[in-house]
């Protein structure tokens, strides 16, 4: 044992899929990729295999550009399809707008054009609230529509909804970026392969998530249509997103994509969220969960709910999770409960019991 374990591995939370560890097969892939020397900066055998797998899912023209994190993937993807005067239409709740410390603006040099949405999903009409002003020197030129799939609210666009957005954007000369930090959860929810709601319906470029799906770290920008991008290999370096020992990120992505592990992991996470929702909904229906309401549909691996703040704090003594909107009401808070590839049915049952007990205490 090279180091002493410093944490209690029996602690499970409902805070974030990022709190989960690494799927054993993915960890094993890092060990398999170890040993001997391989070319650095992406010229390795694992990155070559990754390119083949990405083409299988996203089409022959697709290419993967491995990066270190999701913020980097988003900034790099957006930069590669924009000009210095570009604007990016996105949902106000989009991670690029709310959770990246302004990196798309600061690092990417882009103007975000956010639109309020009820559920994290853009529509052609909502896009048009910001997609205007082409040719006006006073306005950042709307060049890209960025959607998140699954959204920050755990909701999922159907393939038809994405097709409509892509048609709409393309008719206006805009490209479509998909933030797929949870693309695996969306595919599992839709029961579609990755290409069926991206490449096949017109998405141009994707931030392909690995961490939330069970990797230790690392994501990839997947370019579906290389025609619409410029200079991504140079931008990736300038954005500090090139891992010198890239083989260890690529090997993890290969482990996920090689035989459907990505899908099994996401299906499981989604099922656990559905189970949590079901358990709590039963209690709401039979009157034993007074004060609990649901604020979003549960379509992937998150349950959004509102409950009395005091009850939420009592649950938190046992299980960590985040307030999503603490200003939800005078005495209520909106919370996000997330499941991951390693959440068990027993964890969900124990968590649901803790919530119901806390509500019972008033
Ligand atoms: C929708 C979405 N996009 C992107 C990211 C990537 O973020 P990070 O830079 O933390 O890897 C996250 C992580 O929480 C996310 O939820």
Keyword list:
2 domains; alpha/beta; 4-stranded antiparallel sheet; 362 residues; Aspartate Aminotransferase, domain 1; Aspartate Aminotransferase, domain 2; globular; binds pyridoxal-5'-phosphate; 7-stranded mixed sheet
Q: Strand tally, please? A: 11
CATH class (first level) name of the largest domain = Alpha Beta
Shape: globular
Biggest sheet strand line-up: 1-7-6-5-4-2-3
Poorly predicted runs are none
The CATH homologous superfamily of the largest domain corresponds to Type I PLP-dependent aspartate aminotransferase-like (Major domain)
Given helix and strand content, the structural type is alpha/beta
Percentage of residues in strands: 15-25%
Tally of alpha and pi helices: 13
Residues in helices, as a percent range: 25-40%
Compounds present?
A: pyridoxal-5'-phosphate
Could you tell me the radius of gyration in angstroms?
21 Å
Task: Round the mean pLDDT to the nearest integer and report it.
Answer: 97
Q: End-to-end span in angstroms? A: 47 Å
Listing every helix as H and every strand as E from the N terminus to the C terminus, the arrangement reads: HHEHEHHEHEHEHEEHHHEEHEEH
* CATH topology-level name of the largest domain: Aspartate Aminotransferase, domain 2
* Domain tally: 2
CATH architecture verdict of the largest domain: 3-Layer(aba) Sandwich
The biggest beta sheet, please?
7 strands, mixed
Q: Can you tell me about this structure?
A:
It is a single chain. The chain folds into two domains: 33-259, Type I PLP-dependent aspartate aminotransferase-like (Major domain) (Aspartate Aminotransferase, domain 2, 3-Layer(aba) Sandwich); 263-360, Aspartate Aminotransferase, domain 1 (Alpha-Beta Complex), CATH 3.90.1150. The chain has 362 residues and is α/β, with parallel strands linked by helices. The protein has helices at 24-33, 45-58, 70-80, 95-98, 103-106, 124-128, 159-171, 183-190, 232-238, 247-258, 261-285, 309-316, 345-360; strands spanning 63-67, 86-91, 111-115, 141-148, 175-180, 205-208, 219-223, 293-294, 302-308, 322-325, 332-338. The protein starts with 23 loop residues before the first helix and ends with a helix. It has a seven-stranded mixed beta sheet with strand order 1-7-6-5-4-2-3, sandwiched between helices. The chain is globular, with a radius of gyration of 21 Å. Strand 5 (175-180), helix 8 (183-190) and strand 6 (205-208) form a beta-alpha-beta unit. The protein contains 13 helices and eleven strands. The model has no long low-confidence stretch (mean pLDDT 97). The protein binds pyridoxal-5'-phosphate. Pyridoxal-5'-phosphate (PLP) binds next to helix 3.
